[in-house]
């Protein structure tokens, strides 16, 4: 689980007329372990409580003033800003704060520049001017980084919370189009990595309907899961029972192996070797997550990255020798982010990169702390993904979305469903290298956080989870190079990926500062074709509805009915061609000209068994199959079939370096029957 750190700073009084003093608070924090009472296979999860012990002045430092800028001018801007704020006119203070930001940035006084950015981002945030607030939150972080501080992290988190996001993803049937997004830069898949798609994983031990009988997961949730999670502790024997039950369910096992006494006892010897041999004897794929969340001070194996790397590499080498069915998973928590990378053991020792990633309505489940409802699980993966996904598959080793807060006695079903949809639809589409998601299916009523992540406690949540995971893209079996049944992938709709064939499903990712979405309107070429006010969001489109050059707008309203975003996407369909029920793919797709569909001549003729020759000197094409010979000239309506002259409705023409001719002529010349489906814009040729 996670802890966030909030550093509070204040700009204290600037003293003197001709000099400006900036006084900073140093926040001393101590980290106190407390037992949350979370018992997961007798595992006492630990969480940090950040306690502010004291605030002491670092001291006052005289701010330098460059030649040509009088100190009293700087002081006047500060004094006028303070006076306006005291009069209740914060808007009037904005120009003065901007002057001070620019002034201090120009002379490299980064801390002072950051502090006045803080004035601006707080003002714009409170005023609901979120674009401006985001700009100054990010600028403030930049200046803190230049000052050698990491105090801007919490500001970036707030910027993400209020950032409006509207993205679209569409289904795609052609693996050549989408599969490259799912591959590492090397093109070589990792151990047990699917070619595309995302493994379904589940921790079910505390689920009253499934428990440790993993075979029940299919009847309870409507689908087999690929990975089942179990916890083990250094010094205990290999978890044979969990391995057997995973095997009975046709699944793999993720083992969170935790050295509760620290890393010193982790050595090569009889215990480790026997454990590895037992793992091999299990006869199933095993994802070994050793000493996870190592970047968090709430675990005993935190604090010595060099020792951690040494022990992780030791385990890698032992399991490589003893148990080839084990994939090594390096799995930090998503926070604190700055402490993640120093623990990375190296590409040669890591098969998968995992992460523990949770969101909750209140910080640490405490309703007296600020609401976290605006935090999205989607953006939380960004940093880890951008750092490691080019070479390693990623998994959410543990994740969950609570639908109820016991501390607040408050129901969050609507919020939970919104984020479950993001977890199982948006994240796999946005992050195609996210290859596994393991849900932490637990009601933490007795823990410190007191959040209910259980899927079976709520009939509404259970039903919605069943609906989401029915998607074939979410895989039920672990095997090298696995693929979803039906071969459907997903692509973002952007300038490079906006053309589809036959039909597609559009799935929007929408995040607004108001958190809850009132309505989504889909406006195609100026006409509203659908409106949705409840989950799941998405729309099926046929190619016949989306001619070339179409414009799709997504209009978002909040719960009060106010429009908060309007995003425009280019979207087009192209003509598809099927020969005897099999889709044909072309370097140059068909086009429609003068109401006639022109299709690639050579590709279709050759698919039908004809031999095709092109004479560049005469710009003529000759095709022969059996006793039939066809000859035509580019840009001429006249064709000859076995010497007999015929006329085309539209002449054959050169498009993108390829000869295109009317579809009916191309399909019927060598004995095919040609059909046309206007709804999906599909030419069918049957021999």
What does this structure look like?
GO terms for molecular function: mannan endo-1,4-beta-mannosidase activity. Keywords: Glycosidase, Hydrolase, Membrane, Transmembrane, Transmembrane helix. The active site is at 293 (proton donor), 398 (nucleophile). Residues 145-478 form the GH26 domain. This is GH26 domain-containing protein. The protein is α/β, with parallel strands linked by helices and 687 residues long. It is globular and about 90 Å long. An 8-stranded parallel beta barrel has the order 4-5-6-7-8-9-10-13, surrounded by 4 helices. The chain has a 5-stranded mixed beta sheet with strand order 17-23-22-19-20, with no helix packed on it. It has a 5-stranded antiparallel beta sheet with strand order 28-29-30-31-32, with helices on one face. Helices cover 26% and strands 32% of the residues. α1 (71-86) runs antiparallel to α2 (90-106). The chain has 16 helices and 36 strands. The longest helix is centred in the middle third of the chain and has 18 residues, at 305-322. The relative contact order is 0.09. It has 4 domains: 21-161, Serine Threonine Protein Phosphatase 5, Tetratricopeptide repeat (Alpha Horseshoe); 186-475, Glycosidases (TIM Barrel), CATH 3.20.20.80; 489-574, Sandwich (Immunoglobulin-like), CATH 2.60.40; 576-686, Copper Amine Oxidase, Chain A, domain 1, CATH 3.30.457.10.
């Amino acid at each position: 689980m996670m802890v966030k750190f909030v550093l509070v700073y204040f700009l204290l009084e600037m003293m003197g007329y001709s000099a400006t003093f900036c006084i900073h608070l140093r926040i001393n924090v101590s980290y106190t372990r407390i037992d949350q009472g979370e018992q997961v296979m007798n595992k006492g999860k630990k969480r940090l409580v950040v306690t502010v012990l004291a605030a002491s002045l670092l001291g006052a430092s005289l701010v330098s003033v460059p030649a040509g800028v009088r100190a009293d001018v700087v002081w006047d801007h500060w004094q006028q800003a303070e006076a306006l704020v005291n009069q209740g006119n914060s808007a009037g203070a904005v120009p003065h704060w901007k002057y001070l930001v620019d002034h201090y940035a120009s002379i490299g006084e980064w801390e002072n520049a950051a502090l006045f950015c803080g004035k601006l981002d707080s003002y714009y945030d409170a005023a609901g001017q979120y674009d401006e607030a985001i700009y100054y939150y990010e600028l403030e972080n930049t200046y803190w980084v230049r000052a050698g501080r990491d105090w801007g992290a919490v500001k970036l988190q707030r910027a993400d919370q209020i950032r409006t996001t509207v993205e679209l993803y569409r289904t795609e049937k052609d693996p050549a189009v989408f599969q490259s997004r799912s591959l590492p830069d090397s093109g070589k898949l990792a151990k047990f990595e699917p070619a595309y798609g995302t493994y379904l994983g589940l921790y079910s031990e505390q689920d009253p309907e499934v428990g440790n009988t993993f075979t029940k997961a299919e009847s309870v949730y409507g689908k087999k899961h690929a990975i089942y999670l179990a916890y083990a502790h250094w010094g205990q024997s290999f978890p044979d029972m969990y391995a057997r039950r995973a095997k009975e369910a046709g699944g793999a096992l993720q083992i969170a192996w935790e050295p509760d006494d620290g890393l010193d006892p982790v050595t090569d010897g009889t215990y480790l070797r026997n454990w590895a041999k037992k793992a091999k004897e299990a006869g199933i794929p095993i994802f070994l997550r050793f000493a996870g969340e190592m970047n968090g001070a709430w675990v005993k194996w935190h604090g010595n990255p060099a020792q951690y790397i040494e022990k992780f590499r030791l385990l890698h080498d032992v399991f490589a020798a003893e148990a080839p069915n084990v994939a090594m998973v390096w799995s930090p928590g998503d926070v604190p982010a700055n402490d993640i990378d120093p623990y990375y053991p190296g590409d040669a020792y890591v098969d998968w990169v995992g992460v523990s990633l949770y969101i909750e309505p209140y910080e640490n489940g405490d309703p007296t702390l600020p609401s976290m409802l605006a935090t999205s699980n989607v953006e939380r993966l960004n940093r880890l993904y951008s750092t490691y996904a080019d070479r390693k598959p990623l998994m959410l080793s543990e994740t969950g979305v609570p639908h109820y807060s016991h501390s607040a006695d408050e129901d969050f079903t609507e919020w939970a469903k919104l984020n479950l949809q993001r977890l199982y639809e948006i994240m796999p589409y946005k992050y195609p290298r996210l290859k596994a998601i393991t849900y932490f299916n637990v009601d933490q009523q007795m823990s410190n956080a007191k959040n209910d992540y259980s899927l079976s406690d709520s009939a509404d949540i259970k039903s919605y989870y069943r609906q989401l995971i029915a998607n074939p893209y979410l895989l039920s079996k672990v095997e090298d190079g696995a693929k979803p049944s039906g071969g459907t992938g997903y692509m973002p709709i952007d300038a490079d990926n906006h053309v589809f064939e036959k039909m597609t499903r559009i799935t929007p990712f929408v995040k607004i500062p108001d958190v809850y979405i009132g309505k989504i309107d889909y406006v195609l070429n100026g006409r509203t074709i659908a409106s949705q006010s409840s989950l799941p969001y998405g729309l099926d489109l046929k190619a016949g509805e989306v001619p070339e050059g179409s414009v799709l707008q997504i209009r978002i309203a909040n719960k009060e009915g106010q429009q908060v975003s309007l995003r425009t996407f280019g979207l087009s369909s192209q003509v598809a061609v099927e020969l005897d029920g099999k889709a044909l793919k072309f370097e140059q797709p068909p086009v429609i000209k003068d109401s006639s569909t022109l299709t690639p001549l050579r590709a279709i003729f050759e698919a039908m068994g004809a031999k095709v020759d092109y004479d560049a000197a005469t710009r003529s094409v000759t095709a022969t199959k059996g006793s039939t010979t066809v000859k035509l000239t580019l840009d001429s309506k006249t064709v000859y079939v076995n010497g007999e002259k015929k006329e085309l409705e539209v002449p054959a023409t050169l498009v993108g370096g390829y000869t295109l001719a009317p579809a009916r002529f191309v399909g019927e010349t060598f004995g095919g029957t040609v059909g046309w489906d206007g709804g999906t814009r599909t030419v069918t040729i049957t021999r």
